[in-house]
Structures are given as structure tokens and as C-alpha cells.
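**User:**
If convenient, please work through this fold.
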Amino acid sequence: MKTMRLIRLAVACALFTALPHAVFAADDYQLGPDSMVQEGVPQGKIVEGKHTSEKVFPGAVRNYSIYIPAQYDGSSPAAVMVFQDGGSYVNKTGQFRVPVVFDNLIHKKQMPVTIGIFLNPGVIPAAKQGEQARNNRSFEYDSLGDQYTRFLLEEILPMVAKEHQLKLTDDPNQRAICGISSGGICAFTVAWERPDQFRKVLSHVGSFTNIRGGHVIHAVIRKTENKPLRIFLQDGSGDLDNLHGNWPLANQEMAAALKFKGYDYKFEFGDGGHNGKHGGAILPDSLRWLWR
């Protein structure tokens, strides 16, 4: 009996000692040196603008930012990477700090000279005084089909090239698209619909759930002829679980379908929640893998 009590006491002490570390370790991701401004690395410039859709999402107004690398000289078309929920990605002190990461990786020639296009979701202005404006984010991002893809190809890319006098590549292998949450499923849908235009996808805690029917995508992948895509998925065990679905399970289903079909894909599954901590911490490695 004494021996058993000692064993139970030892186990209890071990659990008490380990538990705080396990709790504090969850979602405790830290940014590395490639996410920090480095001495001697040329910094690109960021210009901002506002766009009103006249064709695909009539009346939707959105702010956007353009990142132009210091190495871009206009002599040849640059690679392109489009970010949904662009405000969170372009923020140099946020979870992703894309301009800083781009500066460092382009300088080290670990990714091509790339123009970043950071788009916020559209907002439909109030029709009458006293009414509220309507956020168009879920409709734009969570809907399946080619509507958002057409928006990029027919409105945004031509506008960016013309308004900012930039040469953008039309090579689909040099075009990437990225997003978080609903922006993640949006990024995948764009490339899935038009692999002749976009072939690189980066999804952070992607909403491959039944917000607007996205829960079927993994099943569609399994029954569709392969497309020339390269896909990086990130999610965590602490992600959402609600009436729309279970995000960790949905992302694991996506990864399993991509593996089954033999896609060029990578899946980083951590212990994080529905945020950009993990995705931001591994963003430099994600981009190196995507652009390799």
C-alpha cells in the first residue's frame, strides 16, 4: 500500500509540474529573424489606394496596399502575390509582417522579385442615410465558383498595373495567392478555378467548412483530375469548432485529399487557435517552400 501511495504521489507531482508548461506552450509561437527588419537589407515601398468595383461586385469599395520591392526596376514583369484581408498581412508590426519578410527573402534570393497586392474585403455603402454599410467579406471569400477570381483578373490586376505603372507577370507559376480564415478558402478557390492564372496557394487557418458550402472541397479534389497547383496549408488543433464545422478536421481532410491525389502540398498542423501566430511564425519558411 505504501508503495502504491508513493507511485500515485509521484505521478501527481509529475502532472502538476508538466501541466503549466503544456498550457503556456500552446499557441506560443514566436517570430524569427526573417520577420524582423535587418540591417543592410533594402526595403520596398508601400503605396495605398481605394478601389470601387464596377463590374464583378458592383459598388463594393475597398482599401488596398501595394508592396513594390526595392529590386523592382520595371525592366521586366515581376512575380505577383495577392493577399486577402490585406490589412493584417501588410502591417509591419502585426502577426505576419509580409513586407519585412519579402524584403529579407528577396534580398537573399530565396523568392523572386515579387509585387504584393493586399486587398481588404469590399464594403457596400449604405443606400440611405441612417442605414448601415454592408460588409461583403463572406460573400466574396466563402462563396465557391469563379466570381472572386474574375474580380482579380478583370478588375484588380489591370487596375494595379495601370494606376501604379507596374509590369505584372502573366505566368501562372509566378503568381501566388494567400489568405487567412475565409481568405484561406478564397485563395484556394481562386487557384482551383483558374490554374491557368494562379498556381501557388498559401492558406492560414482556412475556412474549408460549411459557411457557404466549402466543406465539399476535399471531396471534389478526390474526384477531379489533378491541377498544376502547389499548396501550403497551416492550421492548429485549437482552431474553431462551431455550427459551420470543425476547422482542424476540415484542414486535415484537405491535406488527406491532396496527399491521396499526389499534389505538391505541405501541411503544417500545430496547436494554435484561429489566429495568425503560427502562420506568421512560419511565414518565411512557407514562402521559401512555395517559391522554391
User: Anything to note?
Assistant: The longest strand covers residues 45-52. Confidence is low (pLDDT under 50) at residues 15-23. The longest helix spans residues 2-25.
